[in-house]
Amino acid sequence: MTASAHARELLHFAAVAADSKAGEDLVALDVSGPLPLTDVFLLVSGNSERNVIAISDAVEDALNDAGQKTLRREGKEQGRWVLLDFGDLVVHVFHQEDRQYYSLERLWRDCPVVPFELPNAAVANS
Questions:
Q1: What is its subcellular localisation (predicted)?
Q2: Which end of the chain has a smaller Cβ tally under 10 Å, C or N?
């Protein structure tokens, strides 16, 4: 399977929102093969707890404004790893240290990367 067009559309909104709050190292993985419940994981790093919370707030606001309801939110209080579930898209916003520790890219290394474009940038994930 491959990520749906809807998941890719949500990915665009989430990536632009994360980038607007200085989200770093944005990586999107197509997890539709091994995970039947979602299509795409977006991984984002923030450089502080406040930055992680700001990124997650921006992503959630952008997707809610686009008509996509947040199905589940975890970890916002600590600001270390925030998980936002939007159905076809799950966004993981990590503090840089936690992202290295949990290394989801390594865990999901067999999943293809989903390219996306950001304003004022070439192509992310190339």
A1: Cytoplasm
A2: C
pLDDT tens digits for range 23-60: 999 999 999 999 889 999 999 999 999 999 999 999 99
Report pLDDT digits (tens) over 85-117: 999 999 999 999 999 999 999 999 999 999 998
Helix H or strand E encompassing 72: strand 72-74
CA 2/CA 24 separation, integer angstroms: 25
Contact 83, 92 (CB under 8 A): yes
Contact 41, 11 (CB under 8 A): no
Name the one residue in this structure whose structure tokens are 């916003």: 93
Residue 32: inside a domain: yes
120 phi-psi bin (left φ>0, alpha ψ -120 to 50, beta other): left
Question: Could you say which DSSP state residue 70 is in?
Answer: P
Check which CATH number belongs to the domain holding 60 and give it: 3.30.460.10
